[in-house]
Predict the 3D structure of the following.
Amino acid sequence: MGFSYKKPKHIPGKANQKAQEEFIERYKKLKENKSTEDRIYFVDGVHPLHNSQPAYGWIKKGKSNH
């Protein structure tokens, strides 16, 4: 079927420094301007891990494994 079972290479994420700084500024303004009854919630649709673990999987032959 054109697939092989192998483990992908681990590639660390690349943080966008400018986007992070912009988020921090927006967050500070939001905190300063909210009322005492307002709450700020952070929601993420995934469970991020501090040290990710690449696992084996079926990868199409001829495709990069990272």
